[in-house]
Design brief:
Number of helices: 10
Shape: globular
Largest sheet: 7 strands, antiparallel
CATH architecture of the largest domain: 2-Layer Sandwich
Distance between the termini: 37 Å
Strand content: 25-35%
CATH superfamily of the largest domain: ATP-grasp fold, B domain
Number of domains: 3
Strand order of the largest sheet: 14-13-10-11-12-15-16
Order of helices and strands: EHEEHEHEHHEHEEHEEEEHEEHHEE
Helix content: 25-40%
Radius of gyration: 20 Å
Structural class: alpha+beta
CATH class of the largest domain: Alpha Beta
Number of strands: 16
Amino acid sequence: MLSRQDESTGRTVLVVGNYRPSLMVVRSLAKAGYRVVVGGGGNRPIVELSRYAAETWEHPRIEGGGTDFIDALEQCLSERPDISFVYPISEHAVVCLCRHLHRLPARVKAVMAPPSVVETCLDKPKMLKVAADLGIPQGDFGIVRSRTQLIDSADAIGYPCVVRPTKPLMIPFRKKASICSTAESIREQFRRWPETQETLLVQRYVPGDRHNLYFGAREGEILGGVEVKILRTDREDGTGLAVDGVSVEPTRAICEHSRKLLEQLKYTGVGCVQFIVSEQQACTPFFLEVNPRLGANSVIAQHCGLDLPVLALDLARGVHIEARDFFPPRLIGKRYALANLVGPTWMQ
């Protein structure tokens, strides 16, 4: 319940979108001296139990458009002048704030990348074009609007191929991606066009390890980063959420590609750039996407010395931050594993 107003004015942060990295964010901000209010909303009631959470704000669900949530948020902030920051965690919360940022009081800052940057990152065809224009390798792809176009595009691109949604929050058949190994496979997996989708992305499948570069950036300049090789996801085919990974020596090509992308976007905030490193093609990194938010496994960056939650808040506050080199070899080989999709996290 929200009620307390005290000397924490200007140091109070409202964290919304209870998701896998929420506990990391709450702990980090509280240890940095912020007073953290946690949004409830009936989604995974865990983070509010943390001793680092000062209060809980129960609010309407963000999923499904978030209109009721934004109405409640606007009222909450009008009644709580001590809250100076809103920190969205889940993709639903980030997208919702992007669409309704104008409804936040001028004194309240959203801890996220600029809405135009977020929208570009989450629009997969747009991001693939940005990468292509910069000469960054990626699998051949096509955008389709029907089952017939889907099959024709896959046949033209070749097998195996991957089918993904083009827009955020639009997951067909409860899967982030579908790998189709043969012409028969795509016809079997997509017996009908998913009704929730206007378009789908068909892309040539590139076998290899997924590498995530967790970063903080200001106006496109990378201030610090940690590269992690994903060892396992929650799906056997490797398309799911990462649950096991290890920090690795920064890959020169991945660092350079990421710098180009973030400079082009003029990115300010924290996030993750993903690549597939193809062993079949001389370990060439192929661009996957830019996630303009924190993921649960970004806790490994914090373990390596890059406190992304605090860095994101400092960027929102306009604090001057010196750029740092990518992390030295002594921080290579740090490993994490998620016991389940909420936690706990194991580190080595």
